[in-house]
Write a structure and sequence with these properties.
Helix content is 89%, strand content 0%. The chain has 46 residues and is mainly α.
């Protein structure tokens, strides 16, 4: 029973990490892209 529970918890943790990263990574990429874009626009062009 305990062994099953431990395996189950490991699987849930793995899926949870995958789920979080699949949501968080695009958001972070978007934020980085937007901030880089706005930085590039705010710099005076020489």
């Amino acid at each position: 029973m305990l062994e099953f529970f431990r395996d189950f918890r490991t699987q849930v943790t793995t899926y949870f990490k995958l789920f979080i990263s699949s949501i968080v990574n695009p958001v972070i990429n978007e934020i980085v892209f937007i901030s880089n874009d706005s930085l590039a626009k705010s710099k005076p062009l020489h």
